[in-house]
Amino acid sequence: MNLRENWRIVLLVLFTLASAALLFGPYVAAQATGGGDAKPVSLDYGLQLSGGTQIRAPLIGMTAEDVQFTQNTSFPEKRQAIAEELDLEPSQVRLSAGGRQAQGQAQTQGQRGGTIEVFSKNVTRAEFATALGNNGFDVSQDQIRNGVTAQTRDTVVNVLTDKINEGGISGGNVKTAAAGDEYFIVVEVPNAGEQEVRDLISGTGRVQIVARYPVSENGTTVYRETPLLNNSDFTDIGAAQQADPQSGINQPHVPVSVRQDGAAERYSQRLQEFGFTAEGIGSCPPNADRNPDNASGYCLYTVQNGQVVYAASMSRDLANTMNNGDFAQSPSFVMTTTNISEAQQLAVNLRAGSIPTEMNFTAGTTYTLLPSVAERFKLFSLLAGLVAYLAVSVVVFIRYGSPRVAVPMLATAAAEVFLLLGFASAIGLALDLSHIAGFIAVIGTGVDDLIIIADEILQEGKVATGKVFQSRFKKAFWVIGAAAATTIIAMSPLTVLSLGDLTGFAIVTIVGVLLGVLVTRPAYGDILRNLMLSEEERDRYTEQ
């Protein structure tokens, strides 16, 4: 066989070998190195094929739309003022101008189309409108709607996706879904129970280091709490670790570093200013985390989702590094918790970041699929695929009555599905029933295109010369190329719209069509040419 003239067959073989390496390579490597935890086939399965939990819920919040900002509007000051009037934290208020979160001041006089969001279920529309009016915004209750902006939803989707990935769960998926004018966040986590998923995504993921310290006011000692660090200030976040008495760390902890762009220096200076590195050394009472509002002494609280998970004293060694300036050069320490579960959650939140608001679980729905049921779905999906393939095989054999035509056709169709599986493994696609439907559709459309090729070449009489073969093949290929383009155009909107399972079906179908047009259909043409032409004619075709 001339490789230059049959490069399409060579390309199909190379793609098939690459898919085999992606699907079976990790298992072979694990067996060779003595590892026993690798799956025989490197495929991820979604909720419907592995069992797990789906949580669908709206986000807590309200949005004032078409808010007018002026050139002199100071966004940090307005956010602080609105938050104070509504008895919220500033992080629970977001001002956006022109579709972007506003920073500093508005850029144009009389700019319209901005939004102001509050993230709290304890604020009514009337209270929100009043707070805005008191701060110079002419907003009526009709301009306020339940729900948050698309920007906030996108932020939540991205952060929750990172949290699931950081939690070591494969196949998890976070997306938005619309029902009328209401939007939901849909979280699907395979092989996980409802409580496990809720624990993973509950709260905003906000982490803070808060200093609690005494000050004298009019001869009376009072205690103040000042946030010093939050998620964005940490870097080089290590894995959650158990207590290590040998190194002097007697609690589960997470090693972290503070950013050296001024955050570490400010952190050190403020702790010195508040007295932590002098009289505050070792002065936080035991179990202060259980009664943080009444604790005496100097305490550094690790706060996660608004709850104090640990109260620590300033150690003498850390205080010395802050006093002599070494801390700003190497700003590393450990964040301590009371148990390893809190430490693991802390590490996840630090890596993934925080979200501006929470999911409203009480207004949502939860769906849990047992692994035993999912295993039946997996079995039935495999059987459905095999039945579809066998049915197509019978029809092809009946139509052509020649294994020389039918066997290469069916082998090419099977190779196309195998390439799709390799693609799914390469991108970590979590297979669900919608993807299986796409695989079955690809089998049907693939064989249909191969039949068009075979009919065009065989049904118009004997293929006497390579020139005749090439002419008929090009004619058939134009037909299947046009059909492929139509399919891709029709399916493309489904890949970007929030239409649930239809998105997975569309993605698999489009990729299958592309693989067919670019790889498998041309390869089948070369195979058919080699089978139909005599050796003399193949040599003559090669010379041409």
Summarize the structure in words:
This protein has 544 residues and is of the alpha+beta class. It folds into 4 domains: 7-45 and 370-543, Multidrug efflux transporter AcrB transmembrane fold (Up-down Bundle); 52-57 and 152-202 and 359-367, Alpha-Beta Plaits (2-Layer Sandwich); 62-147, Alpha-Beta Plaits; 207-352, no CATH class. The protein has 16 helices and 18 strands. It has helices spanning 7-32, 47-50, 75-85, 125-134, 150-166, 194-201, 263-274, 316-323, 326-329, 340-352, 371-400, 403-427, 433-458, 466-496, 501-532, 535-543; strands at 44-45, 52-57, 62-69, 93-97, 100-101, 111-118, 144-146, 173-179, 182-190, 207-217, 220-230, 234-235, 253-258, 299-304, 307-312, 332-336, 365-369, 430-431. The strands form 5 sheets. Strands 5-4-6-3-7 form a 5-stranded antiparallel sheet, with helices on one face. A 4-stranded antiparallel sheet has the order 8-9-2-17. A 4-stranded antiparallel sheet has the order 11-10-14-15. A hairpin with a 2-residue loop joins β4 and β5. α12 packs antiparallel against α15. It is elongated. It starts with 6 loop residues before the first helix and ends with a helix. Residues 99-111 and 535-539 have low confidence and may be disordered.
